[in-house]
Amino acid sequence: MSNVNTYLKKHTEALVKDVGIEAACKLTGKSKATLGRYYSTADEHADRFMPIDAVAALEEAARYPHVTTALAEQRGITLSYDGGKRNSPPGGVNSDVVALSQRFAMLMGEYNQSIEDGIITANEAKRLLAETLAVQQVLLDMKLHLEEESV
Q1: With the C-alpha atoms ordered 35, 57, 52, 13, is the resulting torsion angle positive or negative?
Q2: Structural domain includes residue 82
Q3: Which residues fall within 8 angstroms of residue 46, CB to CB, at 6 or more apart?
Q4: What pLDDT, on the 0 to 100 scale, is given for residue 83?
Q5: In a shared domain, residues 20 and 63
Q6: Torsion sign, CA atoms 70, 73, 77, 82
Q7: pTM for the full predicted model
Q8: Cα–Cα distance between 39 and 26 in angstroms, integer?
Q9: Residue 88: inside a domain, yes or no?
């Protein structure tokens, strides 16, 4: 399986888990087994990917557009979010800077714990990914606030 396929499957899994497996089943009309196949890296499921309408339904309910972001990153595209959506909490750049420093400290703390024994396990990598996504969300909020202030 190519690195791109593995990357997309990991983000598909993150999307389903963000929404919750039960809710994802209801939103897409797919079974747990079918959803699992979409993010399985097993050889027999290597060519299975979630249909775009299912991705759209899940990303509407998710806290973060995992698959859309992954696709954009693969093409070198930077996304910007609508300020009216849930990604831009109240506050401004100053509160974003504070939040960014806090999230970054949490990421570095998680990294320090993970690398302590010289090996980053799968669970440690998932926690690092979660912290990385949290930092990314704070940066996106900060970008929105900066865009608002520059108008």
Answers
A1: negative
A2: no
A3: 1, 5
A4: 40
A5: yes
A6: positive
A7: 0.58
A8: 17
A9: no
Q: Are 62 and 107 found together in one domain?
A: no
- Residue 84's pLDDT is 46
Is 67 within the bounds of a domain? yes
**The predicted structure's pLDDT at residue 61:** 92
- Residue 113's domain comprises 93-149
Over the chain (151 residues), the average pLDDT of each successive run of 10 is 88 93 96 95 93 95 88 79 50 85 89 90 86 86 85 74
Joined together, the tokens standing for residue 30 give 């797919």
- Find the farthest-apart pair of alpha carbons in the chain and give their distance in angstroms, rounded: 51
Taking the C-alpha atoms of residue 78 and residue 47, their distance in angstroms, rounded to an integer, is 27
Q: Which three-class secondary structure state does DSSP give residue 58?
A: helix
Nearest to 38 by CA among 61, 56, 20, 55: 55
Please say whether the beta carbons of 35 and 14 come within 8 A.
no
If one counts the domains in the chain, the total is 2
- Residue 51 is assigned to a structural domain of this protein: yes
